[in-house]
Design a protein that fits this description.
six-stranded mixed sheet; Rossmann fold; about 5% strand; alpha/beta; about 475 residues; DNA Cyclobutane Dipyrimidine Photolyase, subunit A, domain 3
C-alpha cells in the first residue's frame, strides 16, 4: 500500500520540471492555511528546492446559481486566509475572471517549477486543471486535501451504496488519521508582488457588486477561526446527543459544519481529531448510525459514530459518485432499475403540478413542504431530514423526473449556503433517482423509488412546531 503521504498526490503531466522561480499552490476547494495537505506538499517542495512558495486563488465572476451571499461568505473566509499567509510571509495572489486564462497568465508571470492543485470531483474545475496541465511547462500535481481518505484511494470505481463504501472506509481509515502537518513561515520571499488588502477589497467588491442577492440570512460566521469555535461549541453542547437529536426537525440539533466543510474552511480531518479527543476514541470501526432515533443512547461515542457516518462515509461517497459518474447532476447517472421504474410511471397522473416559480415561492398545497422551502430561502439550509422530503415531493408534483431534478438543483444551488456541492447532487439523486438506495414498494409516480409523506413526519416529529417556525410569508 502507498504511504499516506504519497497516495494523497497525483501527478498530472510529464513536464521536465525545468528550473523555476517558485512553487505555486492553486487554492480552490480547500480555503484554509493549516490542516491543508496540498499547501503542505507545495511548501515541502519549495523548501527542498530552496524556492519561495506562492498561493493563488481565482475568484470567478459568477458560478452557476450561486448568489451574493455565497460569495460574501467565501470572501470573508479568504480575507482571513490572506491575513494568515501574510503572517507566515507567504505571498498570496488573487485574480478575478476566467480561471483558465488567469492560470495561464499567472504561470507566465511567476514561472513556477511545480504547481499543486486542490482536488475536486466536479466537471468544471476538473476540466480546467486537465486542460491547463496538458500544456503547462511546470510539473503539475493534484492533492486531495478535502477527504480524509483520498477519493482515488478509497475506491477505483463508482460504489454501489453506503454499505460498500463503509467497508472500504473501515479498512483504510486508520492509515489516514494522522495529525495534519503544520504550515511554517516562508523562508524565501517571492520576487512577484502579492495582492495587498486594499486591492483584495477592490477586486472582491467589484465582483460582489454585480451579483444578485438570494435574500438568505447566513448566521454562521465565515473562516477557519470561526469554524473551530463553532466545532468546539458543538462538541461541548451537542455531540453527546447528536445520534438521537440530529433528525428531530422540530428541535434543530444539526452540527452546522456543512458551510465550513463545503468552502474548505475546516478540514474533515481536523474535525475528526477534535471529536476523537472528546470521545477519547480511535474510530477504527465506527458503527453505522441509523436515520432513526430508536437506539435510546446518548454518549459522545454514539455522537461520534453518527457524525463520522455522515462526514466520512456519506460525504466521501458523494465525492466517489461525482468522480466516477459524469452524470452526477442528471438522471443519466442513476441505476437501470431506477430509470426503468421512473420511465414506467411517467404517464401517471400527478395530483398537483407546480411551476418553478411556485416551488421557489413556497406556493404548494403542503404546509410541510412550504416550511422546508421557507427555511431554505430564509436561512440557506434545510434540516437534513426535511431535505429528503423536500426533494421527493418535487418529484411527486413535477411533470417529469427530469424536471424535478432540474428544479431541486436550481433551488439548492441558489439558496443553500453549501450549494454546488457533491453532497447536494447526490442527495437529490438519492431522493429522486434512488442512487445508493434499493427498490421499494411500487407506488404511483415514484415507482420503486423510496416514498415519504407528511403523515410519516407527523408520527415521528412535532411537525406543527416545525411548520410554525418556518411559516414566513411566501413569495408572490
Amino acid at each position: 500500500m502507498q504511504t499516506n503521504s504519497s497516495s494523497r498526490i497525483k501527478e498530472l503531466n510529464n513536464s521536465n520540471n525545468l528550473p523555476g522561480k517558485c512553487v505555486l499552490y492553486v487554492m480552490s476547494r480547500d480555503q484554509r492555511v493549516q490542516d491543508n495537505h496540498a499547501l503542505f506538499y507545495a511548501q515541502q517542495s519549495a523548501i527542498k528546492n530552496n524556492l519561495p512558495i506562492v498561493v493563488f486563488f481565482n475568484l470567478l465572476n459568477s458560478t452557476g446559481e450561486r448568489t451574493r451571499e455565497h460569495y460574501e461568505f467565501m470572501i470573508s473566509g479568504l480575507k482571513q486566509v490572506m491575513k494568515e499567509l501574510a503572517e507566515l510571509k507567504i505571498t498570496f495572489i488573487l485574480k478575478t475572471g476566467g480561471y483558465l486564462d488567469n492560470l495561464v497568465n499567472v504561470e507566465k508571470e511567476i514561472n513556477p517549477s511545480e504547481i499543486y492543485f486542490d482536488f475536486s470531483p466536479l466537471d468544471g474545475p476538473r476540466k480546467v486543471v486537465a486542460t491547463f496541465s496538458k500544456k503547462s511547462k511546470s510539473k503539475c500535481f493534484m492533492v486531495d486535501a478535502h477527504n480524509i481518505i483520498p477519493t482515488w484511494v478509497a475506491s477505483d470505481k463508482e460504489e454501489f451504496s453506503a454499505y460498500t463504501m463503509r467497508i472500504k472506509i473501515h479498512k483504510l481509515l486508520r492509515n489516514y488519521l494522522e495529525e495534519p502537518p503544520l504550515i511554517v513561515p516562508g523562508l524565501i520571499k517571492a520576487s512577484v508582488e502579492g495582492t495587498d488588502p486594499d486591492l483584495f477589497m477592490k477586486l472582491t467588491k467589484d465582483v460582489v457588486s454585480k451579483l444578485t442577492s438570494s435574500g438568505i440570512n447566513v448566521t454562521a460566521k465565515a473562516g477557519t477561526e470561526a469554524g473551530l469555535k463553532h466545532l468546539n461549541k458543538f462538541i461541548k453542547n451537542d455531540l453527546s446527543d447528536y445520534s438521537k437529536a440530529r433528525n428531530d426537525i422540530a428541535n434543530d440539533r444539526q452540527s452546522g459544519l456543512s458551510p465550513y466543510l463545503h468552502f474548505g474552511q475546516l478540514s474533515s480531518l481536523r474535525i475528526a481529531h477534535e471529536v476523537m479527543k472528546a470521545a477519547n476514541k480511535q474510530p477504527l470501526l465506527f458503527k453505522e448510525a441509523k436515520l432513526t432515533q430508536d437506539d435510546g443512547k446518548s454518549s459522545i461515542e454514539t455522537g461520534m459514530n453518527a457524525l463520522f457516518e455522515e462526514m466520512i462515509v456519506r460525504k466521501e461517497l458523494s465525492d466517489n459518485f461525482c468522480l466516477h459518474s459524469r452524470s452526477y447532476n442528471n438522471l443519466d447517472g442513476i441505476r437501470d432499475w431506477a430509470k426503468d421504474t421512473l420511465t414506467s410511471h411517467i404517464g401517471d397522473k400527478r395530483d398537483y403540478v407546480y411551476s418553478e416559480e411556485q416551488w421557489e415561492g413556497s406556493q404548494t398545497h403542503d404546509p410541510a413542504w412550504n416550511a422546508a422551502q421557507n427555511q431554505l430561502r430564509s436561512t440557506g439550509k434545510i434540516h437534513g431530514y426535511m431535505r429528503m422530503y423536500w426533494a421527493k415531493k418535487i418529484l411527486e408534483w413535477s411533470k417529469s423526473p427530469e424536471e424535478a431534478v432540474r428544479t431541486a438543483i436550481y433551488l439548492n444551488d441558489k439558496y443553500s449556503i453549501d450549494g454546488g456541492d457533491p453532497n447536494g447532487y447526490v442527495g437529490i439523486l438519492w431522493s429522486i433517482g434512488g442512487i445508493h438506495d434499493r427498490p421499494w414498494i411500487e407506488r404511483k409516480v415514484f415507482g420503486k423509488i423510496r416514498y415519504m409523506n407528511s403523515e410519516g413526519l407527523k408520527r415521528k416529529f412535532d411537525l406543527d412546531k416545525y411548520v410554525k417556525e418556518n411559516s414566513q410569508t411566501t413569495l408572490v
